[in-house]
Design a protein that fits this description.
Blueprint lengths: L1 E2 L3 H12 L5 E5 L4 E7 L4 E7 L4 H13 L2 E2 L1 E5 L3 H10 L8 E7 L5 E8 L9 E7 L18 E10 L3 H11 L3 E8 L4 E8 L2 E8 L11 E9 L2 H10 L8 E2 L6 E5 L8 E5 L3
Parallel strand pairs: 1-4, 6-9, 10-13, 14-17
Antiparallel strand pairs: 1-5, 2-3, 2-7, 3-4, 7-8, 8-9, 10-14, 11-12, 12-13, 15-16, 16-17
Length: 278
């Protein structure tokens, strides 16, 4: 979830970055927000903006005032909102009862429905975290065919979170949310400890300084999104031609990968493109 001030401009920019149109554009009348959704092979990106005086609109206005545009939260899919809420409560997290959400399409008469399981802000260490049970057929949120499959963004590779209390963040995402911890490693050359949590074909990558004194009051913050492309050179050329400032392609930290950076932080997000390789 990425919060933006100007949804129309952010949608146009993201369509140019992704090389595909939005899958959904809608409004949440009672909540006071509007959104654009980009469905990919393993997730979807939500751009969301305040448009009214509803509870979501007020919260989004406050977020923009506090942090500006950029990553706001993570939504985790569930098939059963009630069971999700019960499991999270059993793990010690403050969770509200599931509530019904409704979104009306900006382009048609379609209406989407879902149930959200919100985790109390006092326990999320900063980001908005919630479970979501979609109640409609998948064709209401289709994967829009890209302009060029070789050069367009295909999937989310990883989300970066920066933590100043790695043990607390490790407990939240591992023990309480129940995500699989695939890596906990010190990279001495970079003075970084890195935790990799796998979920839904993507990685939540948590980083912090080795041996740093834990700051139990510090909020975790997002450090960027990395998107998978089939061909880094083709993707770089397409995005540069669309007007973005893009670095040259270089070898990634993981052997065999090739990456490039989209400078200027589109929609307030540090953005990396990655060709996974073999």
């Amino acid at each position: 979830m990425v919060v933006v001030r100007d949804l129309e401009e952010a949608t146009r920019q993201t369509e140019a970055l992704f090389g595909r149109k939005a899958s959904w554009r809608g409004i949440h009348t009672d909540a006071g927000s509007a959104n654009a959704l980009f469905r990919l092979s393993n997730t979807y990106l939500e751009l969301i903006s305040p448009v009214g005086a509803g509870f979501a609109g007020r919260a989004l206005e406050a977020a923009l005032e506090q942090q500006g545009e950029g990553e706001l939260g993570l939504a985790f899919g569930t098939d059963d909102a009630e069971a999700c809420a019960a499991r999270l409560r059993a793990a010690g997290l403050p969770v509200r009862d599931p509530w019904e959400g409704e979104g009306h399409s900006s382009d048609s008469d379609d209406v989407r429905h879902w149930r959200n399981v919100m985790i109390g802000a006092e326990a999320t260490r900063g980001p908005w975290l919630f479970g979501i049970e979609h109640l409609d057929a998948e064709d209401l949120l289709p994967v829009v065919e890209p302009d060029d499959p070789t050069a367009s963004i295909q999937a989310l590779d990883h989300v970066v979170l920066v933590s100043r209390d790695l043990e607390a963040t490790k407990k939240l995402y591992g023990e309480q949310l129940g995500l699989r911890l695939a890596l906990d490693h010190n990279f001495e050359a970079r003075d970084l400890r890195m935790l990799f949590f796998r979920v839904g074909g993507a990685t939540i990558e948590v980083i912090g300084r080795i041996g740093a004194e834990p700051d139990r009051d510090a909020r975790d913050r997002f450090g960027g999104l990395a998107w998978q492309v089939a061909d880094a050179d083709a993707a770089r050329q397409r995005i540069a031609e669309a007007g973005f400032d893009v670095s040259e392609v270089r070898g990634g930290n993981k052997p065999g990968t090739r990456v490039c950076t989209v400078r200027g932080e589109p929609c307030g997000v540090k953005t990396l493109l990655i060709e996974p390789g073999a």
